């Protein structure tokens, strides 16, 4: 393996794998995608060697060394290719961005996934309420700004918009519209999805929806 | 409040609050501790204002601004007072330290707490097994080095040794010795506990044990 190459171990629908893809595109770094075609079953030897602890995508391989965990990978990308900066320059700005990234990592995707995993109307209602409450917190973080990171698209936008690639599926299975609940957050989503670095890699919402449908069948939900 | 002051919202037995205390001591930064005396019941207005999302210690207040979440606080301290450096200088070293800090944050303390929370011999056995498996992974990270961070005490040592302040209580309630299971990890613990920045702030093992005993009564475990 050439040591200069940047390689991403990826799975096309993974919202977490989308993060390094967008970050690398923002930095205009060329990289090779190695698709883990069989992620639900067998994992490649390269994935298991590169991420022995979790055996999960994404893994960034740079100079022959693996970096794991999507939020940590985005930080690595920002430190390795500093222009344009994704994280704020000051320590306080960095700590705020990391705080919200951590909040999102702990809460957002799991809450959204509960919507399509829920069986029965009442369970769906509870899951939807929890998810929308989190979105409202994030809408508060966005405030009147164009981007979560401030005036320009940055670290926190990448962390969040990547997970939003699944929101259409959440809306379909929860029978609700984020636009009705959180209009400012929804406008931010549209703004980000139109951005070149995002548009280039984000999977089609209907394909994610189909994939989630397949997961529901697999888990015996429908 | 003076804006130059460094204030830590603390609770004496919190293993997470120990992290910023050790990091500030390593940097020779003077700080004022504000004890949340009534953490199990009422929280101070300052804590709720400073950490409205979680309402939890530790919170570092620097230049009048709050920084929350212990691992993020230690990063902030390292960026704000750069000497001596706690995180490695290179992006790859940083990403490795962050990966293990994240692993520890996700697994170690919860697994240990399951030991004293367990009811019945079988449950204690399962909890102990899980906890020791995690310690063995961390012993592998330590390898033959004196410190997790390498030749000198650093970020990952602070993240880990702070949680180790509860390990005596885990051992007592699980009836085992870390020294027997993970001798190298145990030697590292002793090395760290003797360090001035740690020894100055780490609570007495027997006091932590008593505190855990109180928690057990509160939760109706004994």
TrEMBL record, chains A, B:
GO terms for cellular component: cytoplasm. Residues 90-221 form the GST C-terminal domain. It catalyses: RX + glutathione = an S-substituted glutathione + a halide anion + H(+). GO terms for biological process: glutathione metabolic process. One of its GO terms (molecular function) is glutathione transferase activity. Its EC number is 2.5.1.18. Pfam families: GST_C, GST_N. It comes from the Eukaryota. Transmembrane segments: none annotated. It is an enzyme of class 2 (transferase). Residues 4-85 form the GST N-terminal domain. Keywords: Transferase. Belongs to the GST superfamily. This is glutathione transferase. It comes from Kingdonia uniflora.
